[in-house]
Automatic annotation (TrEMBL):
Gene3D superfamilies: 3.90.1200.10, Phosphorylase Kinase, domain 1 (3.30.200.20)
InterPro entries, A to Z: Aminoglycoside_PTrfase (IPR002575), Homoserine_kinase_II (IPR005280), Kinase-like_dom_sf (IPR011009), Pseudomonas-type_ThrB (IPR050249)
Species lineage: Bacteria, Pseudomonadati, Pseudomonadota, Gammaproteobacteria, Oceanospirillales
The keyword Transferase appears for this protein: yes
The enzyme's E.C. designation: 2.7.1.39
Xref: NCBIfam families: PRK05231.1, thrB_alt
Keyword set, alphabetical order: Amino-acid biosynthesis, ATP-binding, Kinase, Nucleotide-binding, Threonine biosynthesis, Transferase
Pathway stated in the Swiss-Prot or TrEMBL entry: Amino-acid biosynthesis; L-threonine biosynthesis; L-threonine from L-aspartate: step 4/5
Domain of life: Bacteria
Family as reported in the entry's similarity comment: Belongs to the pseudomonas-type ThrB family.
Name of the molecule in the record: Homoserine kinase
Amino acid sequence: MAVFTPLSDAQVATFLEKFDVGALRRLQGVAGGTENSTFFVTTEQRELVLTLFEQGEHEELPFFVELLDYFDEHRLPVAGPVHDRDGIALHSLAGKPALLFPRLPGQHPSAPNLAQCEALGEALGQMHLVAQRFPGHRPNPRDLHWLQAMHHKVLAYLAPDDQALMKYEVEEYESAFADAELPQGALHGDLFRDNTLYDGDRLGGIIDFYNGCTGDLLFDLAIVINDWASQEDGALDPARYAAILGSYLAKRPLTPIERERWPMMLRLTALRYWLSRLLVVYVDPPAHDLTPHDPERFKTILKARIALGALPLPEARP
């Protein structure tokens, strides 16, 4: 159960009095998640999600509120935070920062079909279009600079071949992206399938923007492809790949430099998750008693991207 700070009905009922959402009817802790405490809240008027922020840089939370408000205003499938009667979204509850959200419909797709992949690609393409005009700024905390600084911390725990692979890849990225001016904008930063909700084939919502930042739009797209379109052996699934990218490119065509650097960005984001998972296992274990994600998954994906490259990018649909 991902509830690290228990809440009573009385605490939540008092908290809700700040908002025009009705009185509390039911409070339920939500299983899943690795960092924050999450609750489903039913009032006499609507269904809501309450999040308490347990970890991370709390001073960065206003950035996330601004980003979610911005995407919500542009009618993207994102839950904008609920603001109180004074227009304030970010509050404190049980000594922790707290946000209240509308509850979006749907379930996480464990094996997304092609219609679901197309819906995601279309939504992400539209998101990246408007994201280029988002005025906020938060540097990408997991970009190439992070890889350069952090990969040394896990080398002692790796076999010699894996040490050599990681060091070689970081050097390759330094060369590939040194002078690459890629389109910039606001990113989700962690758009795995478990950060989406589907009602059948309809995308009900994109959630958990707490890795949100600003940076290379191509970085965000590569994260999606590596999770959504990778087979068990790490190779790309041609149908899912084409479904996501075809609908994405119909909204936001890639620039020539993005198309050229695409195979390398797939490799970079695969290493990003291999490294971050290794760090959790060996260097910085989670604050709570949770099972870390397996780093081997993204080592497998990285090796597949090196061996097989990327599939051809589809042409943008008219």
